[in-house]
Amino acid sequence: MDPAVFLVFCLCCLLLLSLWKQNSGKGNLPPGPTPLPVIGNILQLDVKNISKSLSNLSKVYGPVFTVYFGMNPTVVLYGYEAVKEALIDLGEDFSGRGKFPVAERINKGFGVLFSNGKRWKEMRRFSLMTLRNFGMGKRSIEDRVQEEARCLVEELRKTNASPCDPTFILGCAPCNVICSIIFQNRFDYTDQDFLNLLEKFNENFRIMSSPWIQVCNNFPAIIDYLPGSHNKILKNVADLRSYVLEKIKEHQATLDINNPRDFIDCFLIKMEQEKHNPQLEFTFENLIATVTDLFGAGTETTSTTLRYALLLLLKHPEVTAKVQEEIDRVVGRHRSPCMQDRSHMPYTDAVVHEAQRYIDLVPTNLPHLVTRDVKFRNYLIPKGTTVLALLTSLLNEDKEFPNPEVFDPGHFLDESGNFKKSDYFMPFSAGKRMCVGEGLARMELFLFLTTILQNFTLKSLVDPKDIDTTPVTSGFGHVPPSYQLCFIPV
């Protein structure tokens, strides 16, 4: 070997070793599998199912342990006690957003999902307030969801009981609800621009859940220098942001500060009010990123849950029959279901909760980050350390949910058939970083599912026993398999 090449090689090794010691020597991190230089614990993790790999490691290292994604240590929390202690009891300390390189390339620290510090607090506070108070005395969000549920039923009738893939129809409904809140308008279910947007959301969720993205998040340099499906995500988001920017410009041209129409108007008014603030967070960049965050999160997670829930109902026709009996008894056929009905429909409520528990949509949760040096149990977690609170460990806790691998609405019913709450039910996470749209999502799931089952019988194209509900990918999210069904009017 050429002496110069050998010298460069040695210097690179020394540099990497130095960086490794620098990263691994901070604080008093929990134990975990021994990492290799540079690549960390990637060889001990199954990139096709990260959550399962981490669950297996918890059996060896306990409820609090450390793994290295590349050169970065990540503290993993497994089980209710550890997750509650961090996200709720020490919520402020664990309220940062942890490393998620692919998302960081997209949002660049703006918006509500992947921002931190003062910016995150202001964007979250404003988004929550605007969603909760939306309408300024006009139509409530429940009215919007009920109206969209009726539109969904009309669209399903157009299938004429023929076999159909429900992916895009079920995507249209929650997307239209969030569009009415953000943009003040909804789309026709056959609008090609609308379907293109839905396809981008759907494709991004699939790619984000692929093994390749787990590799990209371990080695971020890949994102900038190598080809791969991550570039498709970046392209899709760029297209979505262009669409959002076009809508914002339309709003600017027609803005009436005394009569805000939707979320964008409210944000533009806030920008004007805060324009002399030297530490202004209400900027154009944050508006685009926040609207895109709400647009995407308010569409794909709810539509995927609806799609997965219908697959489970096809698999378990006896459950579907009980839900329809309860709908007939409480709601009847001549009015739309409403949120007041939920307290009188314990079985339906249990089915919706059990669907979310069983689906385990985002098993590893979005990464958290400690905002200061934190003493956690007997360890010292340094400021800036990424933390994964595994939601899958709560939703699949066999002491709370016996036989968690079985879809059973009884997990949320007491001996008298009344709905039974569970502290372990955290599909929207918990604490300071809890999903901003939880209330809206829960409303949509209940109203859309009950309205569908009020109007249709679900017919599978195969024997229910042969329906496979195993997710096709298990990365960032659990993506359901494709399927077809018939919506038979009742």
UniProtKB/TrEMBL annotation:
Residues recorded as binding heme, renumbered to this chain, are 435
Q: List localization entries.
A: Endoplasmic reticulum membrane; Microsome membrane
The UniProt record lists the keyword Disulfide bond: no
What superkingdom heads the lineage?
Eukaryota
Q: Which SUPFAM superfamilies match?
A: Cytochrome P450
Q: How does it sit in the membrane?
A: Peripheral membrane protein
Question: What InterPro entries does the entry give?
Answer: Cyt_P450, Cyt_P450_CS, Cyt_P450_E_grp-I, Cyt_P450_sf, Cytochrome_P450_fam2
GO terms (BP aspect)? organic acid metabolic process; xenobiotic metabolic process
Tell me which GO cellular component terms the UniProt record holds: endoplasmic reticulum membrane
Entries under Pfam families matching the protein: p450
Q: From the UniProt annotation, give the residues forming the signal peptide.
A: 1-25
The UniProt record lists the EC number as 1.14.14.1
Q: What cofactors does the UniProt entry give for this protein?
A: heme
**Family per similarity comment:** Belongs to the cytochrome P450 family.
Instruction: Name it.
Output: unspecific monooxygenase
